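anyone seen this seq b4? input:
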Amino acid sequence: MKFHKEGYTSLAITVLVIFIANAIADYYDAPEVIKWIIYILSAFLFITIVQFFRSPTKQIVVQEGTILCPADGKVVVIEETEENEYFHDRRLQVSIFMSPINVHVNRNPISGMVSYFKYHPGKFLVAWHPKSSTDNERTTVVVKNANGVEVLFRQIAGALARRIVWYVKENDHVTQGSEFGFIKFGSRVDLFLPLGTQIDVNIGDKVVGGKTIIGKL
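predicted toks r here
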């Protein structure tokens, strides 16, 4: 287990706030009950930030032809839909909701070359809102594997998650399971897969990024 680099600033601010709050309580000789409340709140805040930005070390086994889960969370959508940004045709959508208690690292579902990338500024609707995938702040990444099959995946911000981070750009070569981004404090990741893809998860399943197999191409 390690602390993710995206959390360094948040952790530094948290430690500073805790230090100032405790210093003020000591300086003004606050009653013991007030000091204990500050101690408890400080510990809670510190543990929360560490939990938000934890990044478990994982041994990724690359499996050609499989779609590796891009994020920790729960499967909330499995349906055939129209993808209108890149493919402009029918695709199989699988959506994973990331709660604030999940690991927030996002991982490449397949290996290949990034054939398309775009960042979209937008709203911050709750992640389960029907229009969140088209109206919210988001990124769209398409990776083409060695057989020419393309998979689109999309980071979507939510009401709480207002910071999307990405590490890829067009023409990059990526490896299945490697980090392609990070969503601070949760939200969701959508996958758009070719029709006919074998799906090995069900709605409501708890999935693990870099470990759970979503399906097979």
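The helical segments are 8-27, 32-52, 132-135. The longest strand covers residues 73-83. kinda curious what u guys think
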